[in-house]
Design goal:
- The complex is a heterodimer of chains A (235) and B (306).
- Among the domains of chain A are: 1-105; 172-204.
- Helix content of chain A is 60%, strand content 2%.
- Chain A has helices at residues 5-28, 32-52, 56-79, 87-92, 97-102, 137-157, 173-182, 186-207, 219-226, and strands at residues 124-125, 128-129.
- In chain A, helix 1 (5-28) runs antiparallel to helix 2 (32-52) and helix 2 runs antiparallel to helix 3.
- The longest helix of chain A has 24 residues, at 5-28.
- Chain B is mainly α.
- Chain B has one domain (18-24, 40-300).
- Helix content of chain B is 66%, strand content 0%.
- Chain B has helices at 3-30, 56-74, 91-98, 101-113, 116-147, 152-162, 166-169, 171-184, 208-233, 243-261, 270-297.
- The longest helix of chain B is centred in the middle third of the chain and has 32 residues, at 116-147.
- The two termini of chain B are 28 Å apart.
- The chains are: A mainly alpha (235), B mainly alpha (306).
Protein backbone atom coordinates (compact mmCIF):
# COMPACT_ATOMS: atom_id res chain seq x y z
CA UNK A 1 0.00 0.00 0.00
CA UNK A 2 1.33 3.43 -0.94
CA UNK A 3 1.66 5.93 1.90
CA UNK A 4 2.05 9.61 1.12
CA UNK A 5 5.60 10.87 1.85
CA UNK A 6 4.38 13.45 4.38
CA UNK A 7 2.41 10.81 6.25
CA UNK A 8 5.45 8.52 6.15
CA UNK A 9 7.53 11.13 7.94
CA UNK A 10 4.84 11.69 10.54
CA UNK A 11 4.46 7.95 11.15
CA UNK A 12 8.23 7.52 11.34
CA UNK A 13 8.41 10.29 13.95
CA UNK A 14 5.63 8.71 16.01
CA UNK A 15 7.08 5.20 15.96
CA UNK A 16 10.63 6.40 16.54
CA UNK A 17 9.40 8.43 19.51
CA UNK A 18 7.67 5.33 20.89
CA UNK A 19 10.87 3.29 20.62
CA UNK A 20 13.08 5.98 22.18
CA UNK A 21 10.64 6.95 24.95
CA UNK A 22 10.02 3.27 25.68
CA UNK A 23 13.74 2.69 26.13
CA UNK A 24 14.03 5.80 28.30
CA UNK A 25 11.07 4.72 30.42
CA UNK A 26 12.54 1.24 30.78
CA UNK A 27 15.70 2.68 32.27
CA UNK A 28 14.18 5.33 34.51
CA UNK A 29 10.89 4.09 35.96
CA UNK A 30 10.86 2.81 39.54
CA UNK A 31 8.41 -0.06 38.81
CA UNK A 32 9.95 -3.29 37.55
CA UNK A 33 6.67 -4.23 35.87
CA UNK A 34 6.48 -0.89 34.09
CA UNK A 35 10.11 -1.24 33.11
CA UNK A 36 9.40 -4.50 31.30
CA UNK A 37 6.30 -3.12 29.60
CA UNK A 38 8.22 -0.03 28.47
CA UNK A 39 10.86 -2.29 26.93
CA UNK A 40 8.05 -4.15 25.15
CA UNK A 41 6.63 -0.84 23.90
CA UNK A 42 10.06 0.11 22.61
CA UNK A 43 10.29 -3.15 20.64
CA UNK A 44 6.76 -2.60 19.31
CA UNK A 45 7.86 0.82 18.07
CA UNK A 46 10.70 -0.87 16.20
CA UNK A 47 8.21 -3.41 14.82
CA UNK A 48 6.10 -0.52 13.49
CA UNK A 49 9.23 0.90 11.84
CA UNK A 50 9.72 -2.49 10.13
CA UNK A 51 6.15 -2.17 8.90
CA UNK A 52 6.97 1.26 7.48
CA UNK A 53 9.82 -0.41 5.55
CA UNK A 54 7.22 -2.89 4.18
CA UNK A 55 8.79 -5.80 6.04
CA UNK A 56 5.47 -7.10 7.38
CA UNK A 57 6.58 -10.61 8.33
CA UNK A 58 9.60 -9.34 10.24
CA UNK A 59 7.42 -6.83 12.05
CA UNK A 60 4.93 -9.52 13.13
CA UNK A 61 7.75 -11.80 14.25
CA UNK A 62 9.11 -8.99 16.38
CA UNK A 63 5.73 -8.44 18.06
CA UNK A 64 5.16 -12.16 18.57
CA UNK A 65 8.58 -12.79 20.11
CA UNK A 66 8.54 -9.85 22.49
CA UNK A 67 4.90 -9.91 23.59
CA UNK A 68 4.99 -13.39 25.07
CA UNK A 69 8.67 -13.31 25.92
CA UNK A 70 8.52 -10.02 27.79
CA UNK A 71 5.39 -11.01 29.73
CA UNK A 72 7.03 -14.20 30.97
CA UNK A 73 10.25 -12.32 31.74
CA UNK A 74 8.33 -9.68 33.71
CA UNK A 75 6.63 -12.33 35.81
CA UNK A 76 9.92 -13.97 36.74
CA UNK A 77 11.41 -10.55 37.44
CA UNK A 78 8.49 -9.77 39.76
CA UNK A 79 8.99 -13.07 41.59
CA UNK A 80 12.55 -12.16 42.52
CA UNK A 81 12.32 -8.46 43.35
CA UNK A 82 11.26 -6.98 46.67
CA UNK A 83 9.45 -3.91 45.31
CA UNK A 84 8.22 -4.87 41.82
CA UNK A 85 5.45 -2.25 41.76
CA UNK A 86 7.89 0.51 42.63
CA UNK A 87 5.61 2.16 45.17
CA UNK A 88 8.23 2.03 47.93
CA UNK A 89 11.00 3.44 45.76
CA UNK A 90 8.82 6.11 44.18
CA UNK A 91 7.49 7.09 47.59
CA UNK A 92 10.83 7.86 49.17
CA UNK A 93 13.54 8.40 46.59
CA UNK A 94 14.70 11.75 45.35
CA UNK A 95 14.15 11.33 41.63
CA UNK A 96 15.26 13.28 38.59
CA UNK A 97 12.59 14.87 36.45
CA UNK A 98 12.62 12.02 33.90
CA UNK A 99 12.36 9.41 36.61
CA UNK A 100 9.45 11.30 38.12
CA UNK A 101 7.67 11.51 34.77
CA UNK A 102 7.92 7.77 34.11
CA UNK A 103 7.04 6.85 37.71
CA UNK A 104 3.92 9.01 37.87
CA UNK A 105 1.09 7.43 39.80
CA UNK A 106 3.26 4.85 41.53
CA UNK A 107 4.00 6.73 44.72
CA UNK A 108 1.92 6.04 47.77
CA UNK A 109 2.74 6.59 51.41
CA UNK A 110 4.52 3.57 52.81
CA UNK A 111 4.71 3.00 56.55
CA UNK A 112 7.98 1.12 56.14
CA UNK A 113 9.97 3.77 54.31
CA UNK A 114 12.10 6.34 56.07
CA UNK A 115 12.39 9.86 54.63
CA UNK A 116 15.20 10.46 52.20
CA UNK A 117 18.54 11.06 53.89
CA UNK A 118 17.46 9.82 57.31
CA UNK A 119 19.45 6.60 56.90
CA UNK A 120 22.81 8.34 57.03
CA UNK A 121 23.49 8.69 53.30
CA UNK A 122 21.53 5.56 52.39
CA UNK A 123 17.91 5.37 51.30
CA UNK A 124 16.48 2.71 53.56
CA UNK A 125 13.12 0.96 53.19
CA UNK A 126 12.08 -2.11 55.20
CA UNK A 127 15.71 -2.74 56.05
CA UNK A 128 16.93 -2.66 52.43
CA UNK A 129 19.33 -0.12 51.00
CA UNK A 130 17.35 1.38 48.13
CA UNK A 131 19.94 3.93 46.98
CA UNK A 132 20.08 4.35 43.24
CA UNK A 133 23.27 6.42 43.24
CA UNK A 134 26.46 4.51 42.55
CA UNK A 135 29.98 5.89 42.01
CA UNK A 136 29.77 4.83 38.36
CA UNK A 137 26.73 6.98 37.69
CA UNK A 138 28.66 10.17 36.95
CA UNK A 139 30.90 8.84 34.21
CA UNK A 140 28.24 6.45 32.94
CA UNK A 141 26.19 9.48 32.00
CA UNK A 142 29.07 10.92 29.94
CA UNK A 143 29.67 7.54 28.33
CA UNK A 144 26.01 7.32 27.39
CA UNK A 145 26.08 10.74 25.75
CA UNK A 146 29.26 9.81 23.84
CA UNK A 147 27.63 6.64 22.45
CA UNK A 148 24.54 8.63 21.46
CA UNK A 149 26.67 11.22 19.61
CA UNK A 150 28.65 8.53 17.74
CA UNK A 151 25.52 6.64 16.70
CA UNK A 152 23.62 9.76 15.61
CA UNK A 153 26.70 10.94 13.72
CA UNK A 154 26.96 7.63 11.91
CA UNK A 155 23.27 7.85 11.03
CA UNK A 156 23.51 11.42 9.68
CA UNK A 157 26.81 11.10 7.82
CA UNK A 158 25.99 7.59 6.54
CA UNK A 159 29.43 6.22 5.66
CA UNK A 160 27.83 3.10 4.11
CA UNK A 161 25.93 3.11 0.82
CA UNK A 162 22.15 3.29 1.02
CA UNK A 163 21.41 -0.20 -0.19
CA UNK A 164 17.83 -0.31 0.97
CA UNK A 165 16.57 2.21 -1.54
CA UNK A 166 17.15 -0.19 -4.40
CA UNK A 167 15.37 -3.10 -2.75
CA UNK A 168 11.73 -3.43 -3.70
CA UNK A 169 9.13 -4.82 -1.32
CA UNK A 170 8.59 -8.49 -1.97
CA UNK A 171 5.01 -9.78 -1.71
CA UNK A 172 6.25 -13.34 -1.32
CA UNK A 173 8.64 -12.60 1.53
CA UNK A 174 7.34 -15.44 3.80
CA UNK A 175 8.12 -17.96 1.07
CA UNK A 176 11.57 -16.50 0.43
CA UNK A 177 12.43 -16.39 4.13
CA UNK A 178 11.28 -20.00 4.46
CA UNK A 179 13.42 -21.04 1.49
CA UNK A 180 16.45 -19.28 2.94
CA UNK A 181 15.95 -20.84 6.39
CA UNK A 182 15.53 -24.33 4.99
CA UNK A 183 18.18 -23.90 2.25
CA UNK A 184 21.08 -21.55 2.61
CA UNK A 185 20.93 -21.14 6.39
CA UNK A 186 19.75 -24.64 7.26
CA UNK A 187 22.78 -25.50 9.44
CA UNK A 188 22.33 -22.39 11.57
CA UNK A 189 18.56 -22.91 11.75
CA UNK A 190 18.77 -26.55 12.78
CA UNK A 191 21.64 -25.73 15.13
CA UNK A 192 19.47 -23.20 16.92
CA UNK A 193 16.69 -25.78 17.07
CA UNK A 194 19.04 -28.31 18.66
CA UNK A 195 20.21 -25.72 21.18
CA UNK A 196 16.63 -24.93 22.20
CA UNK A 197 15.84 -28.65 22.46
CA UNK A 198 18.80 -29.13 24.79
CA UNK A 199 17.56 -26.14 26.80
CA UNK A 200 14.15 -27.80 27.16
CA UNK A 201 15.84 -31.03 28.29
CA UNK A 202 17.77 -29.03 30.89
CA UNK A 203 14.61 -27.34 32.14
CA UNK A 204 12.78 -30.66 32.44
CA UNK A 205 15.74 -32.15 34.30
CA UNK A 206 15.82 -29.23 36.74
CA UNK A 207 12.07 -29.37 37.33
CA UNK A 208 12.04 -33.08 38.20
CA UNK A 209 11.74 -33.86 41.91
CA UNK A 210 15.11 -34.71 43.35
CA UNK A 211 15.88 -38.32 44.22
CA UNK A 212 18.17 -37.37 47.08
CA UNK A 213 16.63 -36.65 50.49
CA UNK A 214 16.38 -33.02 51.57
CA UNK A 215 19.01 -31.84 54.05
CA UNK A 216 17.84 -31.64 57.66
CA UNK A 217 17.62 -27.86 57.80
CA UNK A 218 15.33 -27.72 54.76
CA UNK A 219 12.65 -29.93 56.26
CA UNK A 220 10.47 -27.07 57.39
CA UNK A 221 10.65 -25.47 53.93
CA UNK A 222 9.54 -28.71 52.31
CA UNK A 223 6.68 -28.98 54.82
CA UNK A 224 5.60 -25.45 53.98
CA UNK A 225 5.54 -26.26 50.26
CA UNK A 226 3.62 -29.50 50.71
CA UNK A 227 1.09 -28.05 53.14
CA UNK A 228 -2.44 -27.75 51.68
CA UNK A 229 -3.38 -24.18 50.80
CA UNK A 230 -5.71 -22.37 53.22
CA UNK A 231 -9.39 -22.48 52.25
CA UNK A 232 -10.45 -19.51 50.10
CA UNK A 233 -12.07 -16.64 51.92
CA UNK A 234 -15.80 -16.37 51.61
CA UNK A 235 -17.39 -13.12 50.44
CA UNK B 1 -11.88 -1.99 0.63
CA UNK B 2 -10.58 1.47 1.31
CA UNK B 3 -9.31 2.52 4.70
CA UNK B 4 -12.52 4.22 5.89
CA UNK B 5 -14.94 1.41 4.89
CA UNK B 6 -12.53 -1.17 6.35
CA UNK B 7 -12.47 0.73 9.63
CA UNK B 8 -16.27 0.98 9.72
CA UNK B 9 -16.63 -2.71 8.82
CA UNK B 10 -14.21 -3.78 11.55
CA UNK B 11 -15.95 -1.69 14.20
CA UNK B 12 -19.35 -3.00 13.14
CA UNK B 13 -18.04 -6.57 13.12
CA UNK B 14 -16.52 -6.21 16.58
CA UNK B 15 -19.74 -4.85 18.04
CA UNK B 16 -22.07 -7.21 16.17
CA UNK B 17 -19.86 -10.22 16.79
CA UNK B 18 -19.61 -9.42 20.49
CA UNK B 19 -23.38 -9.02 20.77
CA UNK B 20 -24.01 -12.29 18.93
CA UNK B 21 -21.43 -14.23 20.92
CA UNK B 22 -22.70 -12.80 24.20
CA UNK B 23 -26.34 -13.62 23.43
CA UNK B 24 -25.58 -17.16 22.26
CA UNK B 25 -23.25 -17.86 25.15
CA UNK B 26 -25.72 -16.55 27.70
CA UNK B 27 -28.43 -18.77 26.26
CA UNK B 28 -26.16 -21.83 26.33
CA UNK B 29 -24.94 -21.11 29.86
CA UNK B 30 -28.54 -21.44 31.12
CA UNK B 31 -28.42 -25.11 30.19
CA UNK B 32 -25.12 -25.70 32.01
CA UNK B 33 -25.38 -24.00 35.41
CA UNK B 34 -22.63 -26.17 36.97
CA UNK B 35 -19.93 -24.91 34.61
CA UNK B 36 -17.90 -21.89 35.66
CA UNK B 37 -18.85 -19.14 33.17
CA UNK B 38 -15.38 -17.57 33.38
CA UNK B 39 -15.18 -14.44 31.21
CA UNK B 40 -18.89 -14.80 30.34
CA UNK B 41 -19.89 -13.98 33.92
CA UNK B 42 -21.89 -10.75 34.29
CA UNK B 43 -19.77 -7.62 34.69
CA UNK B 44 -20.66 -4.73 36.99
CA UNK B 45 -21.60 -2.07 34.47
CA UNK B 46 -23.86 -0.27 36.94
CA UNK B 47 -21.18 0.06 39.64
CA UNK B 48 -18.19 2.38 39.58
CA UNK B 49 -15.06 0.62 40.83
CA UNK B 50 -11.90 2.37 41.91
CA UNK B 51 -9.33 -0.01 43.46
CA UNK B 52 -7.27 1.85 46.03
CA UNK B 53 -3.72 1.29 44.84
CA UNK B 54 -3.72 0.99 41.08
CA UNK B 55 -0.96 1.51 38.58
CA UNK B 56 -3.13 4.12 36.82
CA UNK B 57 -1.56 3.83 33.35
CA UNK B 58 -2.02 0.08 33.03
CA UNK B 59 -5.36 0.00 34.81
CA UNK B 60 -7.01 2.45 32.44
CA UNK B 61 -5.28 1.22 29.27
CA UNK B 62 -5.99 -2.50 29.70
CA UNK B 63 -9.61 -2.80 28.46
CA UNK B 64 -8.85 -0.63 25.44
CA UNK B 65 -5.82 -2.79 24.57
CA UNK B 66 -7.96 -5.95 24.77
CA UNK B 67 -10.59 -4.53 22.43
CA UNK B 68 -7.86 -3.17 20.15
CA UNK B 69 -6.28 -6.62 19.83
CA UNK B 70 -9.57 -8.33 18.99
CA UNK B 71 -10.52 -5.62 16.46
CA UNK B 72 -7.09 -5.93 14.78
CA UNK B 73 -7.59 -9.68 14.45
CA UNK B 74 -11.07 -9.22 12.94
CA UNK B 75 -9.54 -7.13 10.13
CA UNK B 76 -8.27 -10.23 8.29
CA UNK B 77 -11.34 -12.44 8.74
CA UNK B 78 -13.21 -12.66 5.42
CA UNK B 79 -17.01 -12.77 5.36
CA UNK B 80 -17.07 -12.63 1.56
CA UNK B 81 -14.60 -12.45 -1.31
CA UNK B 82 -14.61 -8.66 -1.04
CA UNK B 83 -16.06 -8.38 2.45
CA UNK B 84 -12.80 -8.37 4.39
CA UNK B 85 -11.08 -5.50 6.19
CA UNK B 86 -7.74 -6.20 4.54
CA UNK B 87 -6.56 -9.32 2.75
CA UNK B 88 -2.98 -9.36 4.03
CA UNK B 89 -0.30 -11.58 2.51
CA UNK B 90 0.52 -12.84 6.01
CA UNK B 91 -3.09 -12.75 7.28
CA UNK B 92 -3.21 -16.00 9.27
CA UNK B 93 0.10 -15.31 11.01
CA UNK B 94 -1.00 -11.75 11.71
CA UNK B 95 -4.16 -13.12 13.33
CA UNK B 96 -2.13 -15.35 15.66
CA UNK B 97 0.10 -12.44 16.69
CA UNK B 98 -2.41 -9.65 17.30
CA UNK B 99 -4.85 -11.78 19.30
CA UNK B 100 -2.11 -12.19 21.93
CA UNK B 101 -2.72 -8.54 22.82
CA UNK B 102 -5.73 -9.79 24.81
CA UNK B 103 -3.38 -11.74 27.08
CA UNK B 104 -1.21 -8.66 27.40
CA UNK B 105 -4.28 -6.62 28.34
CA UNK B 106 -5.35 -9.10 31.03
CA UNK B 107 -1.81 -9.08 32.43
CA UNK B 108 -1.68 -5.27 32.44
CA UNK B 109 -5.18 -4.92 33.86
CA UNK B 110 -4.53 -7.50 36.55
CA UNK B 111 -1.26 -5.97 37.64
CA UNK B 112 -2.57 -2.43 37.28
CA UNK B 113 -5.70 -3.04 39.38
CA UNK B 114 -3.43 -4.35 42.14
CA UNK B 115 -6.03 -6.33 44.05
CA UNK B 116 -5.07 -9.88 45.11
CA UNK B 117 -7.58 -11.50 42.76
CA UNK B 118 -6.57 -9.38 39.79
CA UNK B 119 -2.83 -9.98 40.25
CA UNK B 120 -3.56 -13.70 40.50
CA UNK B 121 -5.46 -13.40 37.21
CA UNK B 122 -2.46 -11.66 35.67
CA UNK B 123 -0.22 -14.62 36.50
CA UNK B 124 -2.75 -17.17 35.32
CA UNK B 125 -3.37 -15.36 32.04
CA UNK B 126 0.34 -15.26 31.17
CA UNK B 127 0.72 -18.95 32.04
CA UNK B 128 -2.26 -19.69 29.81
CA UNK B 129 -0.64 -17.70 27.00
CA UNK B 130 2.41 -19.97 27.27
CA UNK B 131 0.09 -23.00 27.25
CA UNK B 132 -1.98 -22.19 24.18
CA UNK B 133 0.38 -20.39 21.86
CA UNK B 134 2.43 -23.36 20.61
CA UNK B 135 -0.37 -25.92 20.06
CA UNK B 136 -2.56 -23.23 18.49
CA UNK B 137 0.22 -22.47 16.01
CA UNK B 138 0.55 -26.17 15.24
CA UNK B 139 -3.21 -26.48 14.68
CA UNK B 140 -3.25 -23.49 12.30
CA UNK B 141 -0.19 -24.67 10.34
CA UNK B 142 -2.19 -27.61 8.89
CA UNK B 143 -4.58 -25.51 6.75
CA UNK B 144 -1.72 -23.16 5.84
CA UNK B 145 0.31 -26.10 4.52
CA UNK B 146 -2.59 -27.50 2.52
CA UNK B 147 -3.57 -24.12 1.05
CA UNK B 148 0.09 -23.13 0.48
CA UNK B 149 -0.61 -19.56 1.58
CA UNK B 150 -0.86 -17.34 4.65
CA UNK B 151 -3.68 -15.17 3.26
CA UNK B 152 -7.07 -15.88 4.83
CA UNK B 153 -8.99 -15.20 1.60
CA UNK B 154 -6.66 -17.50 -0.33
CA UNK B 155 -7.20 -20.26 2.27
CA UNK B 156 -10.96 -20.06 1.66
CA UNK B 157 -10.43 -20.04 -2.10
CA UNK B 158 -8.09 -23.03 -1.90
CA UNK B 159 -10.71 -25.06 -0.01
CA UNK B 160 -13.32 -24.04 -2.57
CA UNK B 161 -11.10 -24.97 -5.52
CA UNK B 162 -10.15 -28.33 -4.05
CA UNK B 163 -13.80 -29.01 -3.15
CA UNK B 164 -12.72 -30.04 0.33
CA UNK B 165 -13.25 -28.49 3.75
CA UNK B 166 -10.09 -28.99 5.71
CA UNK B 167 -12.05 -30.35 8.67
CA UNK B 168 -12.54 -33.49 6.56
CA UNK B 169 -8.85 -33.88 5.77
CA UNK B 170 -7.61 -32.73 9.20
CA UNK B 171 -10.09 -33.75 11.91
CA UNK B 172 -7.25 -33.92 14.44
CA UNK B 173 -6.19 -30.39 13.59
CA UNK B 174 -9.78 -29.18 14.00
CA UNK B 175 -10.12 -30.83 17.42
CA UNK B 176 -6.81 -29.28 18.40
CA UNK B 177 -8.06 -25.88 17.23
CA UNK B 178 -11.24 -26.21 19.32
CA UNK B 179 -9.23 -27.15 22.42
CA UNK B 180 -6.65 -24.39 22.03
CA UNK B 181 -9.41 -21.98 20.99
CA UNK B 182 -11.11 -22.58 24.33
CA UNK B 183 -7.77 -21.89 26.03
CA UNK B 184 -7.23 -18.74 23.99
CA UNK B 185 -10.76 -17.52 24.73
CA UNK B 186 -10.55 -18.53 28.43
CA UNK B 187 -13.71 -20.62 28.02
CA UNK B 188 -14.52 -23.74 30.04
CA UNK B 189 -12.70 -25.92 30.94
CA UNK B 190 -9.85 -23.39 30.84
CA UNK B 191 -11.53 -20.54 32.76
CA UNK B 192 -8.83 -20.32 35.41
CA UNK B 193 -7.80 -16.64 34.80
CA UNK B 194 -11.46 -15.64 35.25
CA UNK B 195 -12.42 -18.35 37.75
CA UNK B 196 -15.14 -17.73 40.30
CA UNK B 197 -12.66 -18.67 43.08
CA UNK B 198 -10.89 -15.38 42.37
CA UNK B 199 -14.24 -13.63 41.81
CA UNK B 200 -13.76 -13.24 38.09
CA UNK B 201 -10.17 -12.00 38.40
CA UNK B 202 -9.65 -8.86 36.37
CA UNK B 203 -13.38 -8.33 35.80
CA UNK B 204 -14.02 -7.85 39.54
CA UNK B 205 -11.70 -4.83 39.56
CA UNK B 206 -13.53 -2.92 36.83
CA UNK B 207 -16.90 -1.20 36.76
CA UNK B 208 -18.88 1.15 34.59
CA UNK B 209 -17.81 1.83 31.01
CA UNK B 210 -14.50 0.00 31.42
CA UNK B 211 -16.32 -3.17 32.47
CA UNK B 212 -18.49 -2.80 29.38
CA UNK B 213 -15.36 -2.61 27.21
CA UNK B 214 -14.07 -5.81 28.84
CA UNK B 215 -17.43 -7.46 28.17
CA UNK B 216 -17.32 -6.48 24.47
CA UNK B 217 -13.67 -7.49 24.10
CA UNK B 218 -14.06 -10.89 25.74
CA UNK B 219 -17.24 -11.75 23.82
CA UNK B 220 -15.74 -10.53 20.55
CA UNK B 221 -12.68 -12.66 21.36
CA UNK B 222 -14.82 -15.82 21.35
CA UNK B 223 -16.51 -14.68 18.13
CA UNK B 224 -13.13 -14.06 16.48
CA UNK B 225 -11.78 -17.47 17.46
CA UNK B 226 -14.93 -19.15 16.11
CA UNK B 227 -14.79 -17.15 12.87
CA UNK B 228 -11.14 -18.07 12.30
CA UNK B 229 -12.03 -21.73 12.91
CA UNK B 230 -14.71 -21.45 10.23
CA UNK B 231 -12.23 -19.86 7.81
CA UNK B 232 -9.46 -22.39 8.40
CA UNK B 233 -11.45 -25.61 8.61
CA UNK B 234 -15.03 -25.09 7.35
CA UNK B 235 -14.49 -23.38 4.03
CA UNK B 236 -15.23 -19.84 5.21
CA UNK B 237 -17.62 -17.85 3.07
CA UNK B 238 -17.56 -20.37 0.19
CA UNK B 239 -19.83 -23.39 0.30
CA UNK B 240 -23.42 -24.50 -0.15
CA UNK B 241 -24.75 -21.38 1.59
CA UNK B 242 -22.22 -18.85 0.44
CA UNK B 243 -21.39 -15.33 1.42
CA UNK B 244 -21.71 -13.59 4.78
CA UNK B 245 -24.75 -15.66 5.86
CA UNK B 246 -23.02 -18.98 5.35
CA UNK B 247 -19.92 -17.69 7.07
CA UNK B 248 -22.04 -16.40 9.96
CA UNK B 249 -23.75 -19.80 10.35
CA UNK B 250 -20.40 -21.62 10.34
CA UNK B 251 -19.01 -19.16 12.91
CA UNK B 252 -22.06 -19.77 15.06
CA UNK B 253 -21.53 -23.52 14.77
CA UNK B 254 -17.90 -23.34 15.92
CA UNK B 255 -18.89 -20.95 18.72
CA UNK B 256 -21.58 -23.32 20.01
CA UNK B 257 -19.13 -26.23 19.73
CA UNK B 258 -16.48 -24.43 21.82
CA UNK B 259 -18.98 -23.43 24.52
CA UNK B 260 -20.79 -26.79 24.69
CA UNK B 261 -17.54 -28.80 24.70
CA UNK B 262 -16.76 -27.13 28.01
CA UNK B 263 -19.55 -28.95 29.82
CA UNK B 264 -18.03 -32.37 29.23
CA UNK B 265 -14.73 -31.66 31.00
CA UNK B 266 -14.02 -30.66 34.57
CA UNK B 267 -12.32 -27.30 35.06
CA UNK B 268 -8.55 -27.39 34.67
CA UNK B 269 -6.15 -25.48 36.87
CA UNK B 270 -3.41 -23.44 35.23
CA UNK B 271 -0.84 -26.12 36.06
CA UNK B 272 -3.05 -28.80 34.53
CA UNK B 273 -3.57 -26.62 31.46
CA UNK B 274 0.18 -26.25 31.02
CA UNK B 275 0.73 -29.98 31.52
CA UNK B 276 -2.03 -30.80 29.04
CA UNK B 277 -0.53 -28.39 26.53
CA UNK B 278 3.03 -29.67 26.67
CA UNK B 279 2.36 -33.36 27.24
CA UNK B 280 -0.64 -33.91 24.98
CA UNK B 281 -1.50 -31.02 22.66
CA UNK B 282 2.01 -30.21 21.39
CA UNK B 283 2.86 -33.84 20.52
CA UNK B 284 -0.56 -34.27 18.89
CA UNK B 285 0.00 -31.05 16.97
CA UNK B 286 3.40 -32.22 15.71
CA UNK B 287 1.91 -35.57 14.67
CA UNK B 288 -0.87 -33.69 12.89
CA UNK B 289 1.66 -31.59 10.97
CA UNK B 290 3.38 -34.80 9.85
CA UNK B 291 0.05 -36.34 8.90
CA UNK B 292 -1.00 -33.28 6.90
CA UNK B 293 2.37 -33.27 5.14
CA UNK B 294 1.85 -36.89 4.09
CA UNK B 295 -1.68 -36.15 2.87
CA UNK B 296 -0.37 -33.24 0.79
CA UNK B 297 2.22 -35.53 -0.80
CA UNK B 298 -0.65 -37.87 -1.68
CA UNK B 299 -2.42 -34.96 -3.36
CA UNK B 300 -5.26 -34.50 -0.83
CA UNK B 301 -6.70 -31.01 -0.82
CA UNK B 302 -4.63 -29.90 -3.80
CA UNK B 303 -6.49 -28.54 -6.82
CA UNK B 304 -5.44 -29.66 -10.28
CA UNK B 305 -4.22 -26.21 -11.30
CA UNK B 306 -1.28 -26.12 -8.91
Amino acid sequence: MEIAPALQIVLFAVFAAISVLGALGMATTMSMFRSGVFLMASFFGVAALFLLLLADLLSLLQVMMYLGGMLVMILFMVLFSSDPGGSMMAGMMTMTRVEKAFSRGLSRPSPMATPHGAGGGMDMAAGHDMSMTTPARKWARHFGWAVAVVLSGALVLRPVARATERALPDPRSPERIGDLLMGKYMIAFEGAGLLILLGIFGAVLLARPSERPDPEDRGHLRAAVDAPPPPPEEG
Amino acid sequence: MGVAPALAWTIALSGGGAALAHAVERGLRRTMPDVDPGPAAPVQIGVERAPAQTDPWFYSAAPAIALFGVALALVVIPFGGQLVGADLEVGAFYYLVVLDFVSLAIALGGWGANTPDAVEACYRAVAQLVAYVVPLGLAVIGPLMMARTLSTVAIVEAQHRAGLWYVVAQPVGFALYIATGAMQGYRAPFTEPFASQIHGGVLAAYGGAQALVWRVALSALLFTIAAMGAVLFLGGYAGPIGGPIGMGLKTLGVLVLIVLAGRFFRARSTAETLALSWKVLVPVGLLNVGLVGSLILLGVGQSAFR
